[in-house]
């Protein structure tokens, strides 16, 4: 176990905010986590992955926990369904690549999403018509309140759009591993039109072929976190009722949208931001990414948290003024 005081978190948040925490603890096994005396740690205690969906707004006064539990195990019962048990500290895209190479279907649409497996299960990451909940069979956690191992089936995880009961538990549950359910059978998910186009309208022959198309799409639209600081999609796509959509559509010639159950409609936040003329706009060292308006980037490399926050407020205000819809951040503020 590694323990540091006054620890620099620059390498553990993809926005590259230059912040520190009072204590940093990285454990290498579930046993080390179970033996950790939480009462000795400076409060508050926050568990993170690689910080790919976080905005540190200032130095963190408490303890940051991080998992380096790293393993991928195959559970093959000779059936169409194949299971992979994956440690929470495994890079999520490494797991996806392993699944595609196997080759097993189910994870390929989630290629190149940054972060670690544990955080992906907490956030219910998604892209190109898929969400990670679609391939999760169960999540293994440490219950920090009762200090015992607990296992949740996917139906018990309270998954929603970029949401789960883990996010709402106040840090009670620390994900230690995730059990994924994949398929040997041919099961491409081509609901997302852009993915069909990237495949040239042809049926893919393998999960790896879909993965390569997804990676190409992401690289064309999203900044590489290794090159430009960001947290990916900054806002959730707003879901509105039919009356609100009708009002917006009346004032705009073409509104991209997705129909949802119950008469609800999802509108791309990126389109709204772009309609407000904010694509490429800057605030201090931060900017709205010039290729994808849903992304805020640390364009200067040394943006302060205040730059990101000011730009966020500017975007929210502009979209609300024009469309009467309040954008909600997908990125967690700490």
**Rg (CA only):** 20 Å
Helical residues, percent: 10-25%
Sheet/helix structural class? alpha+beta
The major beta sheet can be summarized as: 5 strands, antiparallel
Instruction: Report the β-strand fraction as a percent range.
Output: 25-35%
Please report the number of helical segments.
Answer: 8
Strand order of the largest sheet: 6-7-12-10-11
Please state the overall shape, judged from the principal axes of the Cα atoms.
Answer: globular
The parts where pLDDT drops under 50 for at least 5 residues are: none
Total beta strand runs: 20
- Average pLDDT value? 96
Please give the alpha-carbon distance between the first and last residues.
Answer: 24 Å
What does this protein look like?
This protein is of the alpha+beta class. Helices cover 24% and strands 27% of the residues. The protein has helices spanning 30-35, 92-101, 117-123, 193-198, 207-221, 242-251, 269-275, 305-323; strands spanning 2-8, 20-27, 45-48, 54-55, 60-67, 72-75, 81-87, 126-127, 130-131, 136-143, 148-153, 173-183, 229-233, 239-240, 258-259, 265-266, 282-283, 286-288, 295-298, 332-333. A 5-stranded antiparallel beta sheet has the order 6-7-12-10-11. The two termini are 24 Å apart. The model has no long low-confidence stretch (mean pLDDT 96).
